[in-house]
Amino acid sequence: MLLNHAFGLFKNPDNEWAEIRKEHAPPRRLYVAYVFVLAAIGPICAYISTSHFGWTVGNDRLIKFTEISAMQLSILTYLAILVGVFALGYAVNWMAKTYGAREEQVPSNGIALASYSCTPLFLAGFALLYPSPWFNVIIFMIAACYGAWLMFDGLPIVMGIPKDQALMYSGALLTVALVILVSTRVGSVILWNYGFGPVYQNG
């Protein structure tokens, strides 16, 4: 089962990456059985916390979104995650030849590498149930660092490249990931101007 890899990547990453390479899960199956499920954790937790629990900044009053607004923002976030993971996987495949990977033989490996490397970020979504900005930032920073290390660790195994090439390859992919992140932030601002911005509850 694909979800078993989520635990294996924390317990024994090298063995798990080797299993993932041998598995050759088709991208559609990988998305439906893994990414669609785990990517929903953060948006669902964010919806619950921002519409029902609320948060405070300093000694200010409790802040909450309306349920409709929280739902809209959660759905948009979910879609952005799905697009971001796919774009990262596409970048893995696109850069494969440059770094000597044998990816042309197994096109699904790029999507698999991107999807499984994002596992810590998917699971960090549970932290959003406690809507404290600083707590969430710390948890997601730790998750992002571990995800970056997973990608670096998995590149030589999944893509079949020398370890000395993995550092430059992973650096290029992290740059792509940052571009994707910035693009989603810009997209959020644009959507807010079209009426999809947060709406706060009164009182």
Task: Give a quick summary of the entry.
The chain has nine helices and no strands.
Q: How far apart, in Å, are the first and last alpha carbons?
A: 47 Å
In DSSP terms, counting alpha (H) and pi (I) runs of 4 or more, how many helices?
Answer: 9
> pLDDT average, as an integer?
83
Biggest sheet layout: none
Structural class: mainly alpha
Q: Which percent band covers the strand fraction?
A: under 5%
Q: Assign an overall shape.
A: elongated
Helices and strands, with pairings:
Elements: H1 4-11, H2 13-23, H3 27-38, H4 41-53, H5 67-96, H6 108-117, H7 119-124, H8 133-159, H9 163-196
Helix pairs in contact: 1-2, 2-8, 3-6, 4-5, 5-6, 5-9, 6-8, 8-9
Description:
One of its GO terms (cellular component) is membrane. It is found in: Membrane. This is YIP1 family protein. By secondary structure, the protein is mainly alpha-helical. The protein has one domain. It is 74% helix and 0% strand. It contains 9 helices and no strands. Helix 4 runs antiparallel to helix 5. The longest helix is centred in the C-terminal third of the chain and has 34 residues. The model has no long low-confidence stretch (mean pLDDT 83).
